[in-house]
DNA sequence: TTTACTGATTTGTGATCACAAATGGGGTAT
DNA sequence: ATACCCCATTTGTGATCACAAATCAGTAAA
């Protein structure tokens, strides 16, 4: 999810088992679970690797993000009080720090935390799980793109999201979230 | 997905292994994979069962169905030619037959085939997989409800879906699909 | 009748192993 | 230089096992 694996990077059962100092059995379960969510792809011979997404699939996943996350933000809006918005500001500053450090994994992690913090307020665990499944699938690709990008500014639409939250402006919030996702898509397809 | 398991019904590794005449290992992988998708829930002690959904969660899953399936139908519309629509008619008749036979599992299966046939045309595998994950989670609950319902008529909105397809009417199609899902939700919460 | 306890049984977990298939590299022939 | 082939090694799969925890039934006490 955080882009610790690049697209196409392969994993072996014994490798993962050794890395976490367990036997093959738990490693196998973890890998199979991630494959079931589409986070890892298995070749016909059973070998597992981080997925290399086609442009079509990236577009699909971005469309899913948009559908689900707009709904999540909309459901979070009535429950969003000031403490939450301040927390979002803090996280947003952390995002800028990670960008300054050129830390791709840190950037992705902080960016997702921004979104998750907002969506947790929606009290919609099934939807949040769906959104996270999508993030999981996009992780390796995001890392590959953001790793190459130098000196990107902090996500422009995050400020719009926060001010729409503060104003209780639902249409504005929906638009801001959709724009943020779309902007992310543009980066991935650039 | 088809409601062969009722809500709360428990599964054991050794039970599934014996049922399919394999060892515990493949049974475990299958069960863990289904748990990862939310199709089975695991208790804190690791025991697995078909999920018993709360009303809140059912509403969430129905909202997800609506979001994703409306989008899928919309993407399928430009590619839907006459042969597809005729196929939908055939499946819809099969649905009526299953209702007449009071076969809950057969009804669910045919109903999902109707939707899947349409959505396959969208050429959006990631979205379809998401929709199927939702169906998977709703399976046991649907069976429990439809099993009790006697003499239900065939889904009213399927005809609307087909005529909107024939007319190339996108807003009408979106509305018809949303109505069909909403109608299904009403049955589940009744 | 209900509650509490206890021992037999069931059950998930992690580990290990044998085996077949796939992979990858080095050498040979064209 | 390229394509092909062959063999050592890696890798996933399914099976089995030991063990601890949880579950369940049956009994006894209140």
List the helices and strands and how they pair.
Two copies of one chain form a homodimer.
Chain A: E1 10-11, H1 13-19, H2 24-36, E2 41-42, E3 48-49, H3 55-76, H4 82-100, H5 104-120, H6 125-148, H7 157-167, H8 170-189
Antiparallel strand pairs in A: 1-3, 2-3
Chain A binds a DNA duplex (30 and 30 nucleotides) through helix 2.
Describe the 3D structure.
Two copies of one chain form a homodimer. The first copy, chain A, is built from eight helices and three strands, in the order βααββαααααα. With 190 residues, chain A is mainly alpha-helical. In chain A, strand 2 and strand 3 form a beta hairpin. Chain A is globular, with a radius of gyration of 17 Å. In chain A, 36% of the residues are buried. Chains A and B meet through helix 2, helix 3 and helix 6 of A and helix 2, helix 3 and helix 6 of B. Chain A binds a DNA duplex (30 and 30 nucleotides) through residues 12-14, 22-26, 28-29, 45-48.
């Amino acid at each position: 999810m955080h882009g610790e694996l690049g697209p196409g990077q392969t994993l072996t059962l014994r490798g993962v088992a050794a890395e976490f100092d367990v036997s093959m059995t738990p490693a196998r379960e973890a890998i199979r679970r991630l494959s079931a969510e589409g986070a890892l792809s298995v070749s016909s011979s059973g070998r597992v690797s981080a997925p290399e997404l086609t442009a079509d699939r990236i577009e699909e996943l971005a469309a899913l993000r948009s559908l689900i996350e707009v709904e999540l933000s909309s459901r979070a809006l009535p429950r969003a009080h000031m403490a939450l918005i301040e927390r979002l500001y803090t996280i947003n500053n952390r995002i800028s720090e990670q960008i300054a450090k050129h830390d791709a994994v840190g950037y992705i992690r902080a960016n997702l935390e921004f979104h998750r913090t907002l969506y947790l307020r929606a009290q919609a665990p099934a939807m949040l799980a769906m959104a996270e499944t999508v993030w999981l699938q996009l992780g390796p690709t995001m890392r590959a793109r953001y790793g190459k990008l130098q000196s990107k500014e902090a996500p422009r639409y995050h400020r719009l999201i926060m001010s729409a939250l503060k104003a209780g402006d639902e249409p504005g919030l929906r638009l801001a979230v959709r724009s943020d996702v779309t902007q992310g898509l543009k980066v991935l397809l650039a």
